[in-house]
Amino acid sequence: MVSLQPVQILNYGAEEEKAETARMSSFIGAIAIGDLIKSTLGPKGMDKILQPMDPNSPMTVTNDGATILRSIGVDNPAAKILCEISKVQDDEVGDGTTSVTVLACELLREAEQLVDQNIHPQTIIAGWRKAADEARRVLRESTQDHGDDPEKFKLDLMNIAKTTLSSKLVWQDRDFFSKLAVDAVLRLKGKTDLQAIQIIKKLGGNMTDSYLDEGFLLDKKIGVNQPKRIENAKVLIANTSMDADKIKVFGSRVRVDSTAKVAEIELAEKEKMKEKVNKILKHDITCFINRQLIYNYPEQLFADAGVMAIEHADFEGVERLALVLGGEIVSTFDHPEKVRIGQCDLIEEIMIGEDKLLKFSGVKLGEACTIVIRGATQQILDEVDRSLHDALCVLSQTVKETKIVYGGGCSEMLMANAVTNLAAKTPGKESVAMEAFARALQQLPKIIADNAGYDSAALVAELRAAHNQGKSTTGLDMKQGEIGDMIELGITESFLVKRQILISASEAAEMILRVDDIIKSAPRQRGSDQCH
Q: Is 164 a residue of the active site?
């Protein structure tokens, strides 16, 4: 009898995990990621310290799901998928990054048990799809829309901002920061582009010293001997080299037989720079802002002409400045008639703490504003920035889609009950998968209660009973540790955020559940011409 050797198909060094092993690897990786960040969920969630490998790099203190998952290095493919959906949630709607990851994790935890009961993954997926459709339908039906009533809608925006910020570092001052965020978003007059809202972080003071400035601030200083205040300013915004007052002939080597020749070359360079400055001044401007450096000689020429010159403005600042001043970024200056010049009523120097900044008032884009954040440490400033960014994103999306839903686990329980009722009417194994989907949804209010140190089993049971009795606006009151009416408590969330959480989590969990084979390519051999 001839013993057959297994046929080697993959390259030497490649790894393959099949069937149950692959599925188990996916489940374990995804569940580990969910367990890592679920302690940050809800108004009483805890923070994580992210310490980089380089001891000189700054550490991060945050409870923002997207920031945590972006910072950690994961090798497991399923874990990478969960990190990706968290990033997409952050990019799409700005908030719900932890919720979407935790829901996907809980779905896979339920799927693991169903697979152990020999229910085929495709049967689970079919049940999940029906459950997700039903959950989305119920969520849409439970929405409120006050888009036609400015007073009620502003109250909705305030409540959404408070709910978003209640799980962040600023939760104690959430009323203050909610008003900042709502005022900034309402200035946009219905636009969803947050470019017009600039956030500047300045160390010092405490968090409540932060404020909204109805203008544009640039964190730069005015050049030497130049005007410190300009009214009815005409601003040219440029990205051009202004440092050619030294010998720099494209790196070429120049041989001379006397220092007088060196002086001639220097003079030629100066003349070139003077000609460039004259071209710029022909644009009839009172302020010149350049992304690159402005050396001493051109700075002196601008001062002689009475033009304010500002150098080294960061590119994001220059782009935003061009937007709010109604100008454009230019690099060549031969055709002044074709260049759009930025305009504002006043440019002046102001002080924040010990730093001098430039304030542009009466800008062409009237909705432009700047939020100045103050705080005791850089970590606090960064976390307040992340929190405000989340709130601004959610609010701008809500202005576009004015529907709201209720938070505090209310929407999750509403969807879970609807899915359970549909499962009771559905024959076959799909109903088991649908019940698992409902259990996964119910885990979110349970985790919120656990993180606050309350009796989650009792609270979730009370919440389920209240919803079955028709009290469909009941949710968790994490201040008192009991269930309450979300309308009275003002705990509301954006419909878009909730819908995106449901869609992204179910699709990601479905993708991971479909996997039955993981193949890792062999590492490229050093010195080998083989293509792997």
A: no
Beta bridge partners of 308: 287
Q: What is the pLDDT of residue 532?
A: 44
Contact call for residues 48 and 67 (beta carbons, < 8 A) = no
pLDDT tens-place string over residues 339-360: 888 888 888 888 887 788 888 8
Candidates 62, 64, 474, 492; catalytic one = 64
Number of domains in the chain: 3
**How far from 247 is each of 250, 256, 268, 277, 479, CA to CA, in Å?**
9, 13, 9, 18, 69
Q: Which of 90, 390, 450, 474 is catalytic?
A: 390
Give catalytic status of residue 60 as yes or no.
no
Model confidence over 199-245: pLDDT tens digits?
888 888 888 888 888 878 888 888 778 888 888 989 898 888 887 64
Cα of first residue to Cα of last residue in the chain, in angstroms, is 36
d(CA 61, CA 46): 10
Average pLDDT of the segment spanning 307-332: 82
Q: Considering just the CA atoms, what is the radius of gyration of the chain in Å?
A: 30
User: Residue 68 and residue 484: Cα distance in Å, rounded?
Assistant: 31
- Say if residue 224 is in the same domain as residue 363: yes
- Do residues 140 and 156 share a domain? no
Interval 75-81 mean pLDDT: 83
Reply yes or no on whether 64 is catalytic.
yes
> How far is 407 from 413, CA to CA, in rounded Å?
10
Q: Are residues 307 and 238 in the same domain?
A: yes
